[in-house]
Design a protein that fits this description.
Layout: H1 4-19, E1 24-28, E2 37-45, H2 55-71, E3 79-81, E4 87-89, E5 91-98
Parallel strand pairs: 2-5
Antiparallel strand pairs: 1-2, 3-4
Length: about 100
């Protein structure tokens, strides 16, 4: 059985070392979502004032997402296999850019 609080602290520690603790939020799901791990990363300032993310901004966010995923290798998350035999982990990593 996974100790969820310890897992979430480990996730926060690993990501904070790279992105800064003020830019990382890690929360665990409650109720029927118990076991899920939601990760929010502030990836810095927007590159434009557009009402949508530009290709460059999407590349920055994807790069941060991939870096976060690699930093979390070895951390155990709950998972499940769907009807198509695809394995999923119960973790969501969301990257946002702020400002303009």
């Amino acid at each position: 059985m996974i100790n969820l609080k310890a897992r979430n602290r480990e996730v926060k520690k690993r990501l904070s070392a790279v992105f800064g603790s003020q830019n990382v939020s890690v929360t665990g799901g409650r109720g029927t979502a118990r076991g899920w791990c939601d990760i929010y990363i502030n990836g810095g300032k927007r590159l434009s004032d557009a009402d949508f993310y530009t290709h460059e901004e999407m590349n920055v966010m994807n790069s941060i997402h991939d870096k976060a995923k690699s930093l979390l290798e070895g951390v155990e998350f709950y998972g499940y296999t769907d009807d198509m035999d695809t394995k999923h982990q119960e973790v969501i990593i969301q990257v946002n850019l702020t400002g303009g």
